[in-house]
Amino acid sequence: MDLIATAVLPNLVIVAMGSMVGKIPGAIRGGLHSVAVHELSVWFVVVTVAFALSMLVAPFHAALASAAKVRLTYGLQSRLMKAVSDPTGISHLEDKSVLDGLAMAQGTLMNFWPADAPATLVQVWSSRLVWIAGCAVLASFRWWMGLSQLLLWPLVRRPLMRVVKENVQAFGGNANVMRRADYFQQLSSRPLGAKELRVFGLGRWIIERFRSTWLIGMDEVWKIRSGMYSIMARLGFVLLGVYLGSCAYIAWSAVKGTATLRDIAVALPVLGLTMIFGTVTFDDISLEWMVSLLPYVTQTELSLAARNASLDGKRPVARHTAADIRFDDVHFVYPASTQEVFAGLDLYIESNRSTAIVGANGVGKTTLVKLLARLQEPTVGRITVDGVDISDFEAAAWQRRIAVVFQDFTQYPLSARENIGLGAIEHLDDDVGIRLAAARAGVDGVFQRLSAGWDSRLSREFTGGADLSGGEWQRVALARALFAVQHGASILVLDEPTAWMDVRGEAEFFARFLELTSGLTTVVISHRFSTVRLADRICVLESGRLIESGSHSELIAADGTYARMFRLQAARFVEEDQRVMESQ
């Protein structure tokens, strides 16, 4: 009904106005009480009602389009979030083709949103129906005039829409470049880089990088678009000629007396209406963009679903909660690299004991955590639990058995309670457990000092929010992992657990290390030997392989790589202590 009303009412207003104008001469001749005046009054009422209805249809149509857009935007974004979140690992988030497809599916690169397609389609078809109804009105005046408008439409639209399709395809091929341009634009408006941009005076540089990158991405698009402008110019002369010829014919008909005043008053406005809607409008171009983006949504879903299905095992993991873990001849190369991080790594992690991983920067300590948590998959080799390859397990169930404090832990802009409870989301209402985990991590006192206590939102970007220091945030991340342990996780991984803490915080963690790791299969990655030395077993990595392992005392006695690293760090601390004493 909305479409029909949108199509009929504009033409009805024109026809009614033309009919009203046609009655004016008769009304003037007949006088105030003549039949012609009565007919003029009737047509005036029809014009008023039709115009009023057309005014009402517009906001109604806009409201329906807005409601549809909200629902469709939510639906599409939910589908994309699910597609991106479902895969077991995170390698797809480092895959150029996936990221390009995701950016196109979201419509963020060119501000054409796929969710707008249905509402825009309605708008386009509303315009087309207005035009078709106008052609019918013209045909009632002269049949060939309405028919010529119908035949002219595909002649004009086909070459233009072909260029529009080529334009969209060219832009899709440059999605990677446009993502880089979008990165520079986002960098200028987000808090993450705000400090360095100002301290180092990078504002103009960022703007110039955005501009130059964006121009590179748009170069091919503009070349194709210039061809469209050339076609539009040529077709514009054709349309202008048809319009002027039609107007001349209407004028000639009026002079010869073969067209009435009503005919002229109706035909001229309708002719202008059909000429406008019979061409390629911005809505047509927008719709083509939006429709072209929809396949990216499906492609993203299908490709990630297939990837996830190929990695997800079927074996239950519950009975392997406390078992030995082995890395057997593991090789690993990141997708965008050719250099092996691991080149035949053999590593044994004993259950219910703590194992520390040490080595120089870049030896793969954090990558080891990703492989253990199945965030990445070995290129060659396997990781087993009691001889069972972890890839045979249900991926999500296996990951829930691992509690990790990542070096780049997440700072959620949520309440203090939620920041810890997310470690076991299904137990978010376990307030006692959350407080216990916070106490074990030594962060409960911090929350008590906040204005809203445990309900304080940990972000200054929100009204009433508060921020924490780096060390306090690291304790929150530790508490989150401990809360996961309280609810079933049996492997605790600590990746540089004191990197953000000051000397006092590190000392407190050092004192609680044995308590925190007691009875757990724990993997500790740290360059600070004050923590590492407490582990039951220490493994030293170098050149992608395990070169030493043993307890702290055993490795010191062996006088190998670990001993040299330990003495080097210990000597530095002694020198610092001496400098402090001398300064006093």
Question: Which key terms come to mind for this protein?
Answer:
alpha/beta; disordered C terminus; 20 helices; ABC transporter transmembrane region fold; 4-stranded antiparallel sheet
Provide structural commentary.
This protein has 20 helices and 10 strands. It has helices at residues 2-30, 35-85, 96-106, 117-141, 143-173, 175-187, 194-199, 203-256, 261-277, 282-311, 365-372, 395-400, 416-421, 431-441, 444-449, 470-486, 503-517, 529-532, 552-558, 561-583, and strands at residues 325-333, 340-349, 354-358, 380-385, 388-389, 402-405, 491-495, 521-525, 537-542, 545-550. The chain is α/β, with parallel strands linked by helices and 584 residues long. The chain starts with a helix and ends with a helix. The chain has a domain at 2-309: ABC transporter type 1, transmembrane domain (ABC transporter transmembrane region fold, Up-down Bundle). The strands form 2 sheets. Strands 6-7-8-3-9-10 form a 6-stranded mixed beta sheet, with helices on both faces. A 4-stranded antiparallel beta sheet has the order 2-1-4-5, covered by helices on one side. It is elongated, with a radius of gyration of 36 Å.
